[in-house]
Amino acid sequence: MDSEDTNFATGCKFILHEEALSMREIGIGIVGGGYMGKAHAVAMQSVGAVFNTNLRPRLEMVCATTDQSAEKYRKSFGFKRCTSDWQKLVDDPNVEAIVIASPQETHREIAEAAFLCRKPVFCEKPLGASLEDSQAMVAAAENSGVVNMVGFNYIRTPAAQFARSLIAEGEVGDITWFRGEHTEDFYADPALSASWRTRGKSNGTMGDLAPHMINGALALVGPIVTLIAEVETVHSKRPTTSSASDAKDLSDVTNDDQGQIMCRFENGAMGHLFFSRIATGRKMGYVFEVTGTKGAIRFDQEDQNALWLYKAEGPEHLRGFRKILTGPSHPDYLAFCQGPGHGTGYQDQIIIEARDFLQAIETKKAVWPTFRDGMDVNRIVELAHDSSESKTWMNV
Question: Where is the GFO/IDH/MocA-like oxidoreductase domain (predicted)?
Answer without folding.
Answer: 162-298
